[in-house]
Design goal:
The complex is a heterotrimer of chains A (about 200), B (about 200) and C (about 220). Chain B is mainly alpha-helical and about 200 residues long. Chain B contains 7 helices and 6 strands; from the N terminus they run αββββαβαααβαα. Helix content of chain B is about 50%, strand content about 10%. Chain C folds into 3 domains: about 100 residues, Methane Monooxygenase Hydroxylase, Chain G, domain 1 (Up-down Bundle), CATH 1.20.58.1030; about 60 residues, Up-down Bundle (Methane Monooxygenase Hydroxylase, Chain G, domain 1); about 55 residues, Ribosomal Protein L9, domain 1, CATH 3.40.5. The longest helix of chain C is centred in the N-terminal third of the chain and has 35 residues. The chains are: A mainly alpha (about 200), B mainly alpha (about 200), C mainly alpha (about 220). Chains in contact: A-B, A-C, B-C. The interface between B and C is large, with 45 and 52 residues.
């Protein structure tokens, strides 16, 4: 009765730092009901305390429970908001269906507003010099020209790289190639990565 | 900060390469470099050197300090002194990692050099741990750490600054209790605004 | 005289190039400080816009080169490095704006009046919109359903404040005398920061030194 449910809710929210659980509508409703009950009881007793001072402590305890419930409910929402924001930075403005399901309708609306606010800000960047804005959700990691060493497993022939270089892939030849351009050939078994 | 971000900053260091092509000067935003003449050394930023090396367009000229005798001396000095010795430059670890990683064939005695550099790093890290321990035990909120490079300082985060933050909080609370020994803590939820952006 | 004209033209060009280089270095320092400072720092929008202009100019030039030209690849690599700094810098600021939106908006209101604002107008708008959305969300989902007088969104309780006493590492760009470290026992200690020296200490006493460039957070 005294703010135990809300702790369960918070534990749920904080259990996994990375993923988000489905919005627990049910628990929230129960906690709000609990708050209404506590409040009603206090209203009754508050009128009585002028005559009966011993009730004062009870009223205080209930009031503390009420404040705790409020604070924890807001913390629950806030904790989820933080994770939802990360979704925007990772997935972009459109959420995959299975992720969307985990959000309540209200949360999805908040996500949309957050997304629009962000897009509006990003569009404004460099406005004065005729820039179209920058997408801040890209370019978050330091750029690296990643090359890997590969061994050619079969005669493949010529491979043209993005920068125009042409490499002749003969069986048993070794090369240093950009990671991004090898992936397909590695998957096909034509190239093998040497660590 | 991420180690990759520290590496990013270190990649701005200027090193020498010997290109196998010729080009006029290039005007980058971070400076002008060139002209490139095949076979003649030229100074370029480390990130550019790495890119050219990977495309097999140049040889790397190892920095002056990346040499057995120099490094042996540094290692001895580091062992001998209880302070941190001044390293050849602010980003010796980044230079070592990138150059020995992608261009070890351009560095004479690369294998031994890798070992000595690792030894130096280990000695310094061990000193750092001892210093951190001493700093915490002295209850101090302040320390001087000259000659530590950025990568080394970064390795102490978030442990050292967080520990010092917590220590300060504890000291404050202890002081409050001394000042108000009988105050009933009626506010059950005090906001503690400790936060640092990651 | 012809020679003099050429020299003037060259030096003007050189000045422009040096300026862009200096701007880039300054922006990189600003980025580093912003990453490592607990509070939001005064914006450097002038630097950001200057770099965006440079990027735009450079991109136009690159497009004139054949795609396979080595120079194009080199320039592209530099541009992606600069874009990283800009994006990470602005994102770091947004994160702080979101986290500390209530105190930031309160303080910024006063700063705007004296022309010493820390946020750009667009960041300010973002902050306001963000707080409004958060408040509305909390009202709709829980606050409006709470009993009686508990429905208020109490800004002072919701506010999160940056920890100005968190410990940071710094390097002194010049010699600074008389930095006062407050002791809990009330025994203040005064220290000097020699040029080039490095320290770990509380952010609060050196906050202004970060903002005026006398120290660099590392």
């Amino acid at each position: 009765m005294f703010a135990e449910k809300v702790i369960e809710l918070l534990k749920e929210a904080e259990r996994n730092p990375v993923t988000i659980d489905p919005f627990n509508d049910d628990k929230i409703r129960q906690i709000l009901e609990e708050m209404q009950t506590l409040f009603r009881m206090n209203m009754n007793d508050a009128n009585a305390t002028t005559e009966n001072k011993s009730l004062w402590t009870t009223v205080q305890v209930r009031h503390s429970a009420l404040e705790r419930n409020k604070r924890c409910l807001l913390a629950y929402l806030y904790s989820r908001m933080a994770k939802i924001k990360t979704l925007r930075w990772e997935f972009g403005a459109i959420l995959p269906a299975d992720v969307r399901e985990l959000l309540s309708d209200d949360e999805y609306e908040w996500f949309t507003k957050y997304s629009m606010n962000l897009a509006s800000y990003m569009r404004s960047l460099g406005q004065d010099i005729g820039y179209n804005g920058i997408d801040l959700t890209e370019n978050l990691k330091p750029p690296k020209s990643l090359y890997i060493e590969v061994l050619c497993m079969a005669d493949y022939g010529k491979l043209e790289l993005e920068d125009g270089d042409v490499i002749l892939l003969k069986k048993n030849s070794r090369h240093f190639l950009p990671t991004s351009e090898c992936q397909t050939l590695i998957r096909q078994g034509i190239l093998k990565q040497i660590s | 900060m991420d180690p990759y971000e520290v590496e990013f900053i270190g990649e701005n260091r200027i090193i020498s390469v010997i290109p196998n092509f010729s080009y006029d000067k290039i005007y980058l935003i971070c400076g002008e470099f060139g002209p490139f003449r095949a076979g003649l050394p030229i100074n370029v930023p480390l990130w550019l050197a790495m890119m050219l090396k990977q495309k097999q367009k140049c040889r790397i000229v190892p920095p002056d300090w990346m040499e057995l005798d120099t490094l042996e001396n540094i290692k001895e000095e580091e062992k001998r002194s209880r302070f941190f010795t001044k390293m050849p430059n602010e980003h010796y670890m980044v230079e070592a990692k990138l150059i020995l990683g992608a261009a070890s064939e351009d560095v004479p005695n690369a294998a031994e050099i890798k070992t000595i550099i690792k030894d130096i790093w280990d000695i310094r890290m061990s000193k750092l741990r001892t210093s951190m321990d001493a700093l915490m035990k002295s209850g101090g909120g302040y320390g001087r750490l000259d000659h530590l490079t950025m990568m080394e300082i970064n390795s102490a985060k978030p442990l050292l600054p967080s520990a010092m933050d917590y220590l300060l909080q504890i000291q404050k609370k202890a002081q409050q209790r001394v000042q108000q020994p009988s105050a009933l803590n009626t506010s059950t939820f005090s906001q503690s605004g400790s936060s640092q952006n990651t | 005289m012809d020679l003099t004209d050429d020299n003037i033209a060259l030096s003007e060009d050189e000045e422009e190039e040096i300026t862009a280089e200096v701007v880039l270095k300054t922006l990189q320092s600003a980025w580093q400080n912003e990453r490592l400072a607990p509070e939001i720092l005064p914006h450097r929008n002038d630097m950001v816009e200057c770099m965006l202009g440079q990027i735009q100019h450079m991109e136009r030039n690159i497009n004139k080169l054949p795609k396979t030209d080595l120079r194009a690849t080199i320039h592209k690599m530099e541009l992606s490095r600069i874009k990283f700094i800009i994006c990470n810098y602005l994102k770091t600021r947004l994160s702080k704006i979101e986290k500390y939106c209530i105190p930031i908006l309160n303080e910024e209101r006063q700063r705007v009046e004296s022309g010493t604002n820390f946020l750009t107008p667009m960041e300010y708008k973002y902050a306001q919109e963000y707080l409004l959305n958060m408040e509305n969300h909390m009202k709709t989902v829980v606050l409006d359903k709470m009993p009686g007088n508990m429905q208020m969104f109490e800004s002072n309780k919701m506010a999160e404040h940056p920890n100005m006493q968190s410990h940071v590492f710094l390097k002194a760009n010049e010699t600074i005398n008389g930095v006062v470290l407050e002791d809990l026992a009330g025994e203040d200690e005064e220290i000097d920061l020699e040029e080039g020296s490095q320290h770990i200490l509380q952010y609060k006493p050196i906050a202004d030194l970060v903002k005026n460039g006398k120290v660099q957070l590392i």
